[in-house]
Design brief:
The complex is a heterodimer of chains A (105) and B (158). Chain A has 105 residues and is mainly alpha-helical. Chain A has one domain. Chain A contains three helices and no strands. In chain A, 14% of the residues are buried. With 158 residues, chain B is mainly α. The chains are: A mainly alpha (105), B mainly alpha (158).
Chain lengths: 105, 158
């Protein structure tokens, strides 16, 4: 194993852990806002780490640079999309879950 | 009707991202003939950047940037490029969209002329698709109102 693989594998593994945590949060959390919170943060981190790991694996090439561009784009776009969705839900009258209330849906 | 968002986060991020989305659309159009992509896909991405602008900055500002009339003109212009290149091949004495014969005007070998001809056609398709995407979304956003506003169309409630 060369150095690029040794560096990229931990990035990918941590990224996959965040994907798993985000998906569990999406399936298990009680209401819309909590689920959005889990996926919005978890997936952003997971995509970022996975793409950095893949670009390290790819090395100094055009493909690696493109992966970095995608990572920057996702880092900007994904939290903004989450923000827009949660704002729209709040405006449409979706009530946040409070402790002791039953789960919605 | 679309509602203008007053949210500074969404507006700022959209303003930062729209130029890069458009640059990526041009990249997809330009690489259409030797990698995945092409005129249609690039045009759709370009149109999506205008739709993002409309969603974040509202109908009026989007109209100032790209009115319905401009969208119609751009779609016709794209079609003109496409069919113009096709007819130029026909005039030069070969089949419609057979770019090989363009090598005499472009002063390159026929293989390069084919590549350049396809690129020209892709640019035409990209412009047309961009304008049509935007005008379809525009029609949906305004609920099919005519461009002059609802007064010019009489009473629509009846």
């Amino acid at each position: 194993m060369d150095l690029q693989q040794i560096v990229s594998i931990p990035f990918l593994l941590v990224g996959f852990f965040f994907f798993l945590a985000a998906t569990i949060g999406l399936l298990r959390f009680p209401d819309f806002f909590c689920r959005l919170h889990a996926t919005g943060k978890g997936d952003t981190m997971a995509v970022l780490l996975s793409l950095i790991g893949l670009s390290v694996y790819e090395g100094f090439s055009l493909t690696g640079l493109k992966l970095i561009f995608i990572a920057v784009f996702m880092f900007l776009a994904q939290p903004t999309a989450t923000h827009a969705i949660s704002r729209a839900a709040m405006r449409c009258g979706q009530e946040p879950w409070i402790k002791g209330k039953a789960k919605t849906q | 009707m679309t509602r203008v968002t007053d949210d500074i986060i969404i507006r700022t991020v959209a303003r930062v991202l729209i130029p890069f989305i458009q640059l990526y659309a041009l990249y997809v159009i330009m690489h259409g003939h030797h990698s995945p992509g092409g005129g249609f896909q690039g045009g759709v991405i370009f149109g999506a950047s205008f739709i993002l602008y409309l969603l974040t900055h509202g109908l009026e500002e989007a109209k100032a940037r790209m009115s319905e009339m401009k969208a119609g003109l751009f779609s016709s212009f794209g079609l003109l490029i496409y069919s113009g290149i096709g007819l130029l091949c026909l005039i030069m004495g070969s089949n419609y969209l057979d770019y090989g014969r363009l090598s005499t005007i472009l002063r390159v070998i026929p293989a390069q002329a084919r590549s350049l001809g396809i690129l020209g056609v892709e640019i035409g398709v990209g412009i047309a698709v961009m304008a049509v995407m935007f005008s379809i979304f525009f029609d949906i956003a305004t609920g099919g109102e005519p461009p002059g506003g609802e007064e010019s169309f009489g009473d629509r409630d009846g």
